[in-house]
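User: I'm designing a mutation panel for Secreted protein and want to avoid disrupting the core. Could you give me a predicted structure to guide residue selection? Please restate the sequence first so the numbering is unambiguous.

Assistant: Good idea. Sequence first, for numbering, then the predicted structure tokens:
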Amino acid sequence: MIKYSILIITIIITLFSCDGRYHAKKQPLDRVAAKELLLSFTENLKYFPEEYTEFTNDTILSNGYTVKIKNYSDMENNVLQTFKTSTTTNKHYFREVITEVEVYKNNKQIFKHVLDDAFLSLSNTDYVLNQVYIDEIKSLNTNTLHLVASACIPRTVSCPVYNIAIDPEGEYLITKI
């Protein structure tokens, strides 16, 4: 019986001596860092756009041009931007935008291309094509179709703009504006 009493008293003393005073003085972030768990929780991943996005634009001009522009997000290719804030590593993935353009002159297809970095001859792969639209006034005044394409490096002011002039035979000329 005395052995059981000594065993119970030893267990009670052991339990009461573990009151957590050592851990109470530490900040929660310090405790996580000590166990090296901090590295697994401090990465923030975001995708822009988060889901598949697609839109089309069909335009008929009075000078005989019909233009079909289809933009959609490429779910496989993206541009990574990484930056750090205090204890978090942020990784923002900007999905590439693919633009398919079909141009018809008097109901005859004269131009069909996919506009991307290679088409615009962009040497830096950090650019993301973000918009392609028709310069209607210039197209009507010159009897050639003028598309305006903009490609940007995400989160910067580096956004070159390109003019794509397409003549009635389908020949095109790309100039940086």
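For picking mutation sites, this is relevant: Residues 1-41 form one domain. The two ends are 96 Å apart (CA to CA).
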